[in-house]
């Protein structure tokens, strides 16, 4: 079960993300993403918006699939900068993995 924490977007600011709530889940990023078949990055953005920390950490390895090609950021109608959000989530996940001694498989 995922726990929701609506203050999580504020916490992400420590990791360089200031646009978490700018996304309104239109799906443009998912439509242009080369990883579309996996609903990426839309799924991770939604996890960040609702503060589903456990889901982000459980699926943290997925963040490194992002090619950081910039297509999502270029096409975002809200200028929510999804690529930068993914990078911030990477920093968040690394911070917690290091703290907890987690080694991804």
Automatic annotation (TrEMBL):
Keywords: 4Fe-4S, Iron, Iron-sulfur, Metal-binding, Oxidoreductase. GO terms for molecular function: 4 iron, 4 sulfur cluster binding; metal ion binding; oxidoreductase activity. Pfam families: Fer4_8 (PF13183). Residues 54-86 form the 4Fe-4S ferredoxin-type domain. This is 4Fe-4S dicluster domain-containing protein. SUPFAM superfamilies: alpha-helical ferredoxin. One of its GO terms (cellular component) is plasma membrane. InterPro entries: 4Fe4S_Fe-S-bd, 4Fe4S_Fe_S_CS, HdrC_iron-sulfur_subunit, Helical_ferredxn. It comes from the Bacteria. The lineage of its organism: Bacteria, Pseudomonadati, Thermodesulfobacteriota, Syntrophobacteria, Syntrophobacterales.
């Amino acid at each position: 079960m995922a726990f929701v924490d609506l203050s999580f977007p504020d916490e992400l600011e420590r990791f360089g993300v200031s646009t978490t709530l700018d996304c309104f889940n239109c799906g443009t990023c998912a439509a242009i993403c080369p990883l579309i078949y996996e609903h990426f990055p839309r799924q991770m953005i939604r996890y960040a918006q609702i503060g589903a920390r456990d889901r982000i950490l459980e699926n943290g390895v997925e963040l490194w699939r992002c090619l950081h090609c910039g297509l999502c950021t270029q096409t975002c109608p809200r200028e929510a900068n999804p690529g930068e959000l993914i990078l911030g989530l990477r920093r968040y996940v690394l911070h917690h993995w290091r703290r907890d001694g987690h080694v991804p498989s």
